[in-house]
Structures are given as C-alpha cells and as structure tokens.
Description:
- The chain has 111 residues and is mainly alpha-helical.
- The longest helix is centred in the C-terminal third of the chain and has 15 residues, at 86-100.
- It is elongated.
- Helices cover 48% and strands 0% of the residues.
- The termini are far apart.
- The chain has 6 helices and no strands.
- It has 2 domains: 1-58, no CATH class; 66-103.
- 4% of the residues are buried.
Amino acid sequence: MKVHDMPSWMELGVPVDHYDDEPLCTAQQVLDVLFGRSQLDGRGRDSETIFTDTSMVCWTDNFAATPEATDDLFAFLGRQWESVPESVRRLITDLAEAVANEEDGANDYGN
Length: 111
C-alpha cells in the first residue's frame, strides 16, 4: 500500500483534537504564557515546560548571537529598572558584580 493510499484518521474512526488546517498552538499563545498572561499554551505547556523542553531553551544563546537585540533588551530593562521584578534585578546585579570582579579576558574561552 502506498502512503497516499493510506486511510485518513477520519476513515479509521480515530478521534482527533484538531484538523490539519488548525494549528495546535500559535506563537501568540506561547508569548501569552511567557509574558504571564496565560497559564498554558495551545499544547497545554506551561512556562517551565516551554523554557526547558522546547527550542526556547536557547533564548540566551540567541541573544548572545544578536548583539543589537541584547543591547536593546538591556537598554529597555535599564529604562524600566524600578519596574523590573526583584528576582530579575537581583540576577542582573549579581552578574554585573561578577563581571566587575573579573580579570580582563577571563571569559575568552580560548578565542
């Protein structure tokens, strides 16, 4: 039997939650979860799952590879510093303190 001759899910009587033209999840649903406006996306994932079990795990690498976006993000955070949650301010401040105490070239990784 050729692949295109295979019966459809509907013909097999298998229930489906969606149809091929309807996405299980949208980027907006993911953003709503990441921005704290929703608990779950269209696939039922919470923010922890999105950050740890999807390509979102690479978000810091993506910023590191895009200096303009990193500069824009930190400039935005600086303008909104008093509104930034304490946990985020503490993390950024701790990183800044570590950088202030590093020797020049301490993070060159052989480059």
